[in-house]
Write a structure and sequence with these properties.
2 domains, 13% strand, Aldehyde Oxidoreductase, domain 3, elongated, alpha+beta
Length: 265
């Protein structure tokens, strides 16, 4: 046997960067405006897929698309390909069983992907949303906690003609403004507010608030779809992981919060 033949030791070249923390993966790549994929996987093996109801998920803020196996089949996406094609002695290609990217009529094993959610938010956020929505499908109370920052975000998007901000960027500003609002209401400690604000800003730079009309923003707030009878149900943060719902916030305090963040932003 030669030094390079079958059975010879092959020195690995990639290990050094892995064990020294220099490996580079697709999850390390972040680009402005990128989207995220969150796969929904079957908890059952050899399960028939009767239907997938994606209406609730598709209508959630930040969700760009919800795709199932039937969508891929309709678009003739085809199967996941084999690493390389093997031919028989007579030259005919190998036989390959169907292997779609998303299970269509049957989930073959536990963990088989049955749907994918494409969203502006991180996968963990999608997991939280799925959990909350499943417990409050009609948005009667609990699900409102997902709207942190969205009231101001929707006003920012409308006031800027949906041209300046991506939805996630508008929500980022909305969170920063409502953090200041929570401080003015003595609902959160300033140190905790600054901590959350730093986490928001670490995601990336946000387009400026300069030039936006304060009066226009404030007039748009009661038009938010989650307002009831013109009364805004504010999601007020108290600390990471804890919020309160407050529908008694004076509008002049909300205006002050926006003005202060706009000046400092």
């Amino acid at each position: 046997m030669s030094a390079t033949g079958i059975g010879a030791a092959v020195r690995r070249k990639e290990d050094h960067r892995f064990i020294t923390g220099k490996g580079h993966y697709t999850d390390d790549i972040n680009r402005p405006g990128q989207s995220y994929a969150f796969f929904v996987r079957s908890p059952h093996a050899h399960a028939t897929i009767k239907s997938i109801d994606s209406k609730t998920a598709a209508g959630m803020p930040g969700v760009l698309a919800v795709l199932a196996g039937a969508d891929l089949a309709a678009d003739k996406i085809g199967n996941l390909i084999c690493g390389w094609m093997i031919h028989s002695k007579d030259g005919s290609p190998m036989k390959m069983a169907p292997h779609p990217a998303l299970a269509n009529s049957k989930a073959c094993h536990v963990g088989d992907p049955v749907a994918v959610v494409i969203a502006e938010t991180l996968a963990q956020a999608a997991k939280v949303k799925v959990d909350v929505v499943s417990r409050d499908e009609r948005e009667a109370g609990l699900r409102r906690v997902l709207n942190l920052g969205h009231t101001f975000a929707h006003a920012l998007e409308e006031a800027s003609g949906y041209r300046r901000f991506l939805h996630g960027e508008a929500v980022g500003w909305g969170m920063l403004i409502v953090l200041r609002l929570a401080e003015l209401l003595d609902a959160i400690e300033p140190a905790e507010s600054r901590r959350i604000a730093r986490l928001v800003r670490q995601i990336g730079p946000l387009p400026g608030l300069q030039g936006l009309s304060v009066r226009r923003i404030i007039n748009l707030l009661p038009q938010d779809k989650k307002a009831v009878g013109g009364r805004i149900h504010w999601v007020i943060p108290e600390r990471i992981g804890k919020v309160r719902i407050n529908d008694q916030v004076p509008m002049h305090i909300a205006e002050t919060a926006f003005r202060e963040v706009q000046r400092g932003g």
